[in-house]
Structures are given as structure tokens and as C-alpha cells.
Design a protein that fits this description.
With 257 residues, the chain is mostly beta strands. The chain has three helices and 18 strands.
């Protein structure tokens, strides 16, 4: 479609503004000079201050029209709270996943704690309907997902945030699974607390993002999780140290097996 998307990590390290280059798309030799000039200009302008960044990074997605590779045109900027975790471009939809740490001081600052993104200078804060929370012993983290229709920018950006779910993320074109371990509050018959795994599933439908459901397994995951592209079923194997168990869940996080 003559579109090139470049994803950049924006960080403050020792007071210096830096960009690390994460390219999503095909490398084009003719495009390199123009892209490098843009990076130089961006670093020079350094529009984000150290105070605003705190100890968190932002992730920038830059969209170029490369119908003419010798004269690429920057057509869109999407700046998203959080450190880069993953991204994929599938059927004309760009999914961008970032994560940020919510420190004790920032919890008192609603503008910082609530995730936001900026598209071409216009800031959008997430609403209550866009935000979900971990159920068991949440940690001080936030996973932030946006989906952009690159074939039609007039459509709204799909967005969703999960607080307290950790940063262990598994991405597929149609779903994002985040999982983390926690220690059960209840004691077993031997008076010990068990290690549990909690997971959440985010489904991507078009440019919409929805929290489909959550699951809780006894033990630790072995080898992560996988999602069947045809059925949409999630498969996971967990071990409690003595027994390995296979779990299969549907796209709403109901147990099939």
C-alpha cells in the first residue's frame, strides 16, 4: 500500500534523549537517507523533558507514505506511553503493545498513572471503560495496547490497558495473552501457599480491542502459551512441581480441557 511504519523507543538516560530504532516493515535502501535525517531532527528537537518521562519510556510509531521511495512523506505520528514490548501489522491493522511501571509517587498523579497516547499532537486519555485490573495481588505495572487501522486513519484508535498484570506477554495477530505468577493467599492441606499463574486475554477484532477474560492455573507455566489460529483456543501447560497439566481455553477464557 506504499506505507512504511517505523517504531522508535524514546528514553531519557542520564539526562540524554535517545531513540532506539525498531523497524516494522521492509527495509528500503532509497528510504534510509530520509529516515536518518528525520531521526537527527527528532533527537535535536527532544520535545519530551526528563521530568515528564520520569523513569518510564514512551514509544513512537512514525508512518511514512513511500509511494515514491526516493521522497518518503511522514504522514502520522503516534506517541504512546510505556516501554516497547511488541507490535505486529496484520490485515491492515497495527497493534502496538507497551508497558509502564506505576511508581508510588506517580500513583498520586492521575495524569501520569492513566495511560494516554498522542496522535499528531492530539492527546487521548483512556476512559474507565478502557481500563482493567488484575484480580489477584496486582503488581505496579500497566500493559497498554492500541490498534490502528493503517488503511483508514479516520477510524478511531482501539485501546485498552491492564493494570497489575505484569509484562510477560504473548502476541498473535488476533490476541494478546499476558501472564504472571503470584502466591496464593489460601494455604493447602500442608499449611503451604501455592504458586499460581494468572492470565488475561485481549482479543483484537478489526481495530477494536477487548478484554475477553482471565484464567487462573495452579503452578508455573512451562514454555509459555500458544493460540490456535483456526479455533482461537489457548493452550498452556502448568507445573506445580510434581504434576504437569495441559489446559485449553476458548476465546472467552472458558476451560475446554
Amino acid at each position: 500500500h506504499g506505507l512504511f511504519v517505523e517504531i522508535l523507543q524514546e528514553e531519557i538516560n542520564n539526562g540524554n534523549f535517545e531513540l532506539s530504532d525498531i523497524v516494522l516493515g521492509e527495509e528500503l535502501e532509497e528510504f534510509n537517507d530520509a529516515r536518518n535525517k528525520y531521526l537527527e531532527d527528532k533527537i535535536t528537537s527532544a520535545i519530551i523533558s526528563e521530568d515528564e518521562m520520569s523513569d518510564n519510556a514512551s514509544t513512537l510509531a512514525v508512518y511514512y507514505d513511500i509511494t515514491n521511495p526516493n521522497a518518503p512523506v511522514k504522514i502520522r505520528e503516534h506517541l504512546q506511553d510505556g516501554e516497547y514490548i511488541s507490535s505486529n501489522l496484520y490485515e491492515g491493522k497495527l497493534c502496538l503493545v507497551t508497558a509502564k511501571t506505576i511508581s508510588v509517587s506517580s500513583q498520586m498523579d492521575e495524569d501520569f498513572a492513566v495511560p494516554s497516547f498522542i496522535v499528531d499532537g492530539v492527546k487521548v486519555n483512556l476512559s474507565e471503560d478502557d481500563i482493567h485490573y488484575a484480580r489477584n495481588d496486582p503488581d505496579k505495572s500497566c500493559l497498554f495496547v492500541t490498534v490502528t487501522d493503517v488503511d483508514d486513519f479516520t477510524k478511531g484508535v482501539g485501546r485498552l490497558a491492564l493494570f497489575g498484570t505484569g509484562n510477560e506477554v504473548y502476541c498473535t495477530p488476533s490476541a494478546i495473552i499476558c501472564a504472571r505468577e503470584f502466591v496464593s493467599v489460601e494455604k493447602d492441606k500442608n499449611g503451604e501457599r501455592s504458586t499460581m499463574t494468572e492470565g488475561y486475554r485481549i482479543n483484537i477484532v478489526g481495530s477494536s480491542v477487548e478484554c475477553a477474560g482471565w484464567y487462573r492455573l495452579k503452578g508455573s507455566l512451562i514454555g509459555g502459551v500458544s493460540v490456535d489460529e483456526k479455533s482461537g483456543h489457548l493452550r498452556a501447560v502448568a507445573s506445580d512441581g510434581s504434576t504437569n497439566r495441559l489446559y485449553v481455553l476458548d476465546d472467552k477464557m472458558n476451560f475446554v480441557i
